[in-house]
Amino acid sequence: MSHLILVRHGQSEWNLEKKFTGWVDIDLSQQGKEEAHKAGLLIKEKNIGINHFYSSLQLRAKHTLEIIQQILKNDKKFYMAWQLNERHYGALTGLNKIEMSKKIGEDKIRELRRSWDVKPDPLSKESPFHPFNIDTYKKLPREIIPDTESLKDTYERVIKFFKAEIQKHLMTENVLISAHGNSIRALCKYLFKLDNKQIAKLEIPTGNPLLISIDEKLKIKNSEYLDKERSKSLLVF
């Protein structure tokens, strides 16, 4: 039996401010650091040896993983992949979610946030929030950097990477991924075989490790959130 642990980064500074963040490289808030610390303690309690660690390129996911590794006393080098980045929110990037709900309506915001294949308008390449203008992405080929994404777009890049680089390890080893709400939603859609309506309802809490037990045929045997006090979004299949 192998284990896959999925951790959405702890609360970021823009989560706190209720802004659409996407590919903007925002760090953890103080609460986010505390959530990451608690996540590490919860994982440590399970006494699971982690063989492989993965993170997106983004600070909030990297710092969450670094805090977890400190708690686990495991300094194994982790692999950072742009494919695990948060969904790009296009022209919504940097805007306040509550203000935009009032401006264009809650139904429209819900469609842009939760639908499978609807994407926001593209973000101008002149915007300081565009990945072209963020140092984190300077080494990425410009042709792979999006201006906007749907969840479907996010799913395609996340799952392609997962199948190529991560899935093989799960036959015999344990893996921890520190990523984002939508990149983890994409992984859950694939792993739990969720349809487009089910994935629209799935919420991923910050800093709450999802422990998935997998057999040698890559079949899921069990799943549980480790922070029972924040298990409102607990997956039940």
**What's the helix count?**
8
- Report strand order across the widest sheet: 3-2-4-1-5-6
Helix content: 25-40%
Poorly predicted parts: none
Distance between the ends: 19 Å
Give the structural class: alpha/beta
Q: How many runs of DSSP E, i.e. beta strands?
A: 6
Give the H and E element order: EHHEHEHHHEHHEE
Strand content: 5-15%
- So what's the overall shape? globular
Task: Please specify the SSE layout and strand pairing.
Layout: E1 2-8, H1 13-16, H2 30-46, E2 52-55, H3 59-72, E3 79-80, H4 97-104, H5 106-114, H6 151-166, E4 175-179, H7 181-191, H8 196-201, E5 210-214, E6 220-225
Parallel strand pairs: 1-4, 2-3, 2-4
Antiparallel strand pairs: 1-5, 5-6
Helix pairs in contact: 2-3, 4-5, 6-7
Summarize this structure as a short list of keywords or feature phrases.
single chain, 237 residues, alpha/beta, 6-stranded mixed β-sheet, 6 strands, 36% helix
What does this structure look like?
By secondary structure, the protein is α/β, with parallel strands linked by helices. It contains eight helices and six strands, in the order βααβαβαααβααββ. A six-stranded mixed sheet has the order 3-2-4-1-5-6. α2 (30-46) packs across α3 and α6 (151-166) packs across α7. The longest helix has 17 residues, at 30-46. It is globular.
Task: Give a brief description.
The chain is of the alpha/beta class. It has helices spanning 13-16, 30-46, 59-72, 97-104, 106-114, 151-166, 181-191, 196-201; strands at residues 2-8, 52-55, 79-80, 175-179, 210-214, 220-225.
